[in-house]
Specification:
The chain is mostly helical. The protein has four domains: 149 residues, no CATH class; 118 residues, no CATH class; 103 residues, no CATH class; 125 residues, no CATH class. It has 15 helices and no strands. Helix 4 crosses helix 6. The longest helix is centred in the middle third of the chain and has 61 residues.
Amino acid sequence: MIYIVIAIVTFLALILYGTMSRRRIYKEIDRLEAWKMQIMNRPLTEEISKVKGMAMIGETEEKFEMWRQEWDEMVTAHLPNLEENLFDAEEYTDKYRFKKARTILMNVNQSLDRMDTRIKEITSEINELVTSEELNREEIVEAKEKLQETKKYYLTHIRAFGQTAPIFDKELDEIKSLFETFESLTVQGSHLEARQRLVESLNRISVCKTKMQGVPELLVILQSDIPNSLKELSAGFTEMEEQGYVLHHIGIEKEISSLKELNEQALNKVYELELDSAQKDLDETVQKMDQLYEMLENEVHSKQYVLKEREVFFSNIEDLKDRIETLKHETQIVSSTYLIEQNEADMQKKIEKLFHKLQSRFFIIQESIDEKRESFSVIREMMEEMQKQMEELQRSQKVYEEMLHNLRKDELDTKQNLKELRKKLLEARRMVQKSNLPGLPEHYLITIGKAEEYIIEVSKKLDEKPLEMSDVSYVLNKAHDAVNEGYEETSQMIENAYLAEKLIQYGNRFRSSYRSVSIRLIEAEIAFRNYQYEDALQIAASAIESVQPGILKEMEINLKSHV
């Protein structure tokens, strides 16, 4: 039974495959048939007939015959053969020979595609030929007018062209010859080739006219302006040397010789009508001349700067000398009292060394000016560099001066801090006296004693000669910590004693009712009499909190509200 089902399914699948394949192939046949009819109905004959209105000779006649023959072969041979191929493909499809049918259809599709492409090419070639003929008729008149205008311009300005005139004359003759070739090709019916000659002649007329307009200006610049500028440059250089400028670093003779060669090179290029290259050489020449002028102008400005700043530099050097002497004297005074760090002492030596170096450099600058050893631009650079070093020296000097000032300032600040620490420690003692405590715990006396010792040590350090402020600052910080600790401990101790006493008094009301409270309060009283106020507070608080929770918090709030 299962084999029968498989056979039926297979049979049905084959029928479905055959039906679908035939449908797809018939659809492709219809598409190719429509494409074939579209090609056959193309108005190529009408396109070809456009050429008949032209003179049927030479290239025109040859192309006309070639296009007509190709189209006749397509219509009478190729397309009918393709029609038969489509019939064959349809028969193969009916016989279920799908592979053979597809091969035929693929070949038909390729043939139609080739014909379609060739028809488009023929149409384009026809349009190009017809258009070329029309444009040639229209543009030849304009081209001749442009040539005539260019000849007229040439004759009018021939004297301005100099050695280039024969080249222009030859170019105009060659363009004229192109026109004659154009006429000959047109008569022969070679409109496309004639078109090429006409376009070439128009381009050459345009280029020739452009060069005619550019040559005179270039000749004037290269033959007159540049040589005159070089003479002025050389004369200006000589005049500046006579005025005392040192200009040997410029090498003007070599530079001018090089510029003359470059100018001559550009001129020869103009004679050969290589105007773009000649313009580049001219631009380079002008640029280098400008650089030379800038160097000479820089010498003038540098001289003004040097002569103006010379006295300013001398005044600054003298001022620095006085300030360094003053600084040296102040260092000697301060070093008798303070211990100056090695790196700070080295700074003072470095300042003196740098000043002597600047002083020597200034003497060299003075000699260079007086004896004309260097150009003013070089001297200016030396002075500008020296100015930077002077500014650096002034900054270092200022830092060192501030360091000396800070040494004294640190001493005064330390004495003021010491005064405030003593005042704070005295305030702690007064707080203890006002509290009427029965006694003071040992650890508190140790803390206060340590604070007093540090204060005494700071005072001793301040009396040492030389004064080492780093040691003073270290001990001062220790004193700060000790005094603050003592003051905080004083406040906490008094508060603990006050709260412990109040809690013990408050707890007396619970002694008769709670034996455990009575025992704990006796322990608190013993701790209080032994100056253990914190322990007394904790014992009393734990006893009373057991019968009246929150009492300690309430008393702390009341205490803070009365402070």
